Amino acid sequence: MSLRYLFIDFDSFFASVEQQFRPELRGKPVGVVPSLGVETTCCIAASYEAKAHGVKTGTGVREARYLCPGITFIEGNHTRYIQTHEKIRQIIHEIIYVDAVLSIDEMYGRLPPRWQAPEIARAKALEIKAALAAQIGPHISASIGIAPNRFIAKLASKLKKPDGLVLIDFEDLPEALYSMKLSDITGIGRSMGQRLHTARILTMEDLCQVSRHKLHRIWGSIDGDRMWYALRGIELPPTETHRGTIGHSHVLPPRLRSYTGAHSVLHRMLQKACRRLRAMDYFAGHLEVQVKFGFDLHWHDQTHCFPSQDSLTLGECLNSLWAQRPLDAPDPTKVAVTLSQLTHGSSHTPSLFPEENHPRRVALQHAMDAINKHYGGRTLYYAPAMEAQRCSEAAPMRISFTHIPDLELEADAASPLNSEL
């Protein structure tokens, strides 16, 4: 018995949640967008009814309206998505141990030996589907893949969307993967796709047939060897990962598309990032600022600093970078802040300059964090973020592919669990 992994991939999660909680949207094409009334934004999710017309994640609002004239746009409710995700995780965890949550709509668990027989593994998957339908609702569906390793289980979950269930065992490989595209594999983006194309690897069948040594040369590292083994269902020890960055980006609402508005939003995002640093006990030694002016001009600058989690110290670094911005550029439309070169508190050496380490200053920022955690992230803040803090559209909580926000830490307002869950 070798069906060791059960991988769960929720179908059009944001749009499905909206259709579950809003009956008037069921069976209709829906596009979830960051903000309503902004024609330059794009869909962050689309229902399957909208996908049937060619609308997908990343499709612009104007293009989506052209492709699907009857589409309904809904502003994303990220608090609801996180609450639903947490409820779903609890339900699944009662059936099978959830080893890891990879994103807001992906998680997996390992099947113990007594559950690895195909009929038992399938029964567990169906039990998960039935529990979700009964306790959350029938309009939030999940596609499940079961396989010898996590890599194949994830690919299996993509084969029969939506609401699919696919088992792939060793005897099914590699033929069971031939219908997939190379771009379906996480890690094969545009650059790697071009490398494979240059090597005359154009299909999944080509990739599965190539030698391990050739994949090593194409990837230029042991990652090519890991891909070769993964495609054959072989489970390898996981590679150790370290958090590399903390950051936020935001398309500016029209009322903040000015130099002062952009500067204030940058400070709001930096202060949110510093709260996350302190909550996780990390210190950042590098700050990068990115600004899009108009629709064509991209500007960025960066600076190093002694590793810090202090909002005032990093705010001064931000001001120094902002002073170098182009002064004759169009109004800013998008901003981003990224903190990197992270050091965990257990490995951090305090600065010899005591100002930011003064006990009262440290205590003040932790007290601010506690108040914001209880009453919402817009309660207490430093003055440079004032204009953005007063605008509810400025850098609200968002869910990314790699980060599920902590509602207590990052929510703009106190948000008890939705009673409908």
Spell out the blueprint of helices and strands.
Elements: E1 5-10, H1 13-21, E2 30-33, E3 45-46, H2 48-51, H3 61-67, E4 72-75, H4 78-93, E5 100-103, E6 106-110, H5 118-135, E7 142-147, H6 150-157, E8 165-167, H7 190-198, H8 204-209, H9 212-219, H10 222-231, E9 245-251, H11 259-280, E10 282-293, E11 297-308, H12 311-322, E12 332-344, H13 359-375, H14 386-389, H15 407-410
Parallel strand pairs: 2-4, 7-8
Antiparallel strand pairs: 1-6, 1-7, 2-3, 5-6, 9-12, 10-11, 10-12
Task: Provide structural commentary.
The protein has 3 domains: 171 residues, 2-Layer Sandwich (Alpha-Beta Plaits); 59 residues, DNA polymerase, domain 1 (Orthogonal Bundle), CATH 1.10.150; 166 residues, DNA polymerase, Y-family, little finger domain (Dna Ligase, domain 1, 2-Layer Sandwich). 37% of the residues lie in helices and 19% in strands. The chain is built from 15 helices and 12 strands. The strands form 3 sheets. The protein has a 5-stranded mixed β-sheet. Helix 9 crosses helix 10 and helix 11 packs antiparallel against helix 12. The two termini are 37 Å apart.
